[in-house]
Write a structure and sequence with these properties.
Belongs to the ectoine synthase family. Pathway: Amine and polyamine biosynthesis; ectoine biosynthesis; L-ectoine from L-aspartate 4-semialdehyde: step 3/3. It catalyses: (2S)-4-acetamido-2-aminobutanoate = L-ectoine + H2O. Keywords: Lyase. By secondary structure, the protein is mostly beta strands. It has one domain: Jelly Rolls (Sandwich). Helix content is 0%, strand content 50%. Strands 1, 2, 3, 4, 5, 6, 7 and 8 form an 8-stranded antiparallel beta sheet that branches. It has a two-stranded antiparallel ribbon with strand order 9-10. A hairpin with a 2-residue loop joins strand 9 and strand 10. The chain is globular, with a radius of gyration of 14 Å.
């Protein structure tokens, strides 16, 4: 059984930050669960262009107001508390935090290890060897 609280991860490699966003990786590939679980905060006024070419992801909005734009179709959806969006085709997308900070719970499959590398068109796979479950 894995039990941990977010505060215990502060100041560790489970935290990641960039301009206008921060994420706490509550579960990673090292936990061998077959998925990773993150709490991500996108600061009000931030726009992020994102794509994980090797991961599928689901994102659930806990608070804030924003929108997600599917680059391929040009379709935009509103993000409010209780809204889920899932990227089943490694979709390139833009997330905008419009009113308040967007707080999202994010699930990735295969799991994020935390050392994925930016590459043209999205993030590449982890440099850490993948173990089987």
């Amino acid at each position: 059984m894995i039990v941990r609280d977010k505060a215990s991860l502060y100041g560790t490699d489970a935290e990641a930050r960039g301009e206008g966003w921060e994420t706490t990786r509550l579960l990673t590939g090292r936990d061998r669960m077959g998925f990773s679980l993150h709490e991500t905060v996108i600061s009000e006024g931030t726009e992020l262009r994102l794509r994980y070419r090797h991961h599928r992801e689901a994102n659930y909005c806990l608070s804030g107001e924003g929108e997600v734009l599917d680059i391929a179709s040009g379709t935009t959806w509103t993000l409010l508390p209780g809204t889920l969006y899932a990227l089943e085709r490694h979709d390139e997308h833009i997330v905008r935090a419009l009113r308040g900070d967007l707080i999202m719970i994010c699930v990735f499959n295969p799991p994020i290890y935390g050392d994925e590398v930016p590459e043209t068109g999205g993030y590449g796979p982890s440099l850490i060897g993948r173990e089987t479950l």
